[in-house]
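Quick bug: GNAT family N-acetyltransferase output formatted oddly.
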Amino acid sequence: MSSRTSPISQPITIRRAVARDAKRLTRLVRGSGAYEGKYAAAVAGYRVGPDYIEAHRAYVAVGPDEHGGRVLGFYSLVLAPPELDLLFVADEAQGRGIGRLLVAHMLSEARAAGLDRVMVVSHLPAADFYHRVGAVRIGTALANPPAVLWDRPEFEFRIPSE
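Here's what came back:
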């Protein structure tokens, strides 16, 4: 568990997700402003269940009022094959550096797991974010109807050994 401070001096803690976080994480995914309009169908029935949290390295960023249900963001790292499967920051918490904190934490976890790279298939509106935090564009994931109706950029984080 690591503690960080956001640009507005609110303490942010990143901790391992637990089963009781599942409903909050599901609400965060389904309520994401990045998935409004034509993208809404991609997350409409999405569920982050306790089984998912148990199977993957899922971490949440929480503010000082966590016990009131305040999850600011989360990510999920799949080890085989290495992929950043989910990364969400609550709409009201965006622009505070929480996404960068989560990516830095993910890279640290990936390095500790012995990974040298982590792939991410990006949501179109998030592509610039991944580029800004150091991911390199490696290709395009083609549309996969009916689940995903649009092509998505593929990125890779290259993890140097320490």
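Actually, after a second look the formatting is fine. Residues 1-8 have pLDDT under 50 and may be disordered. Closing.
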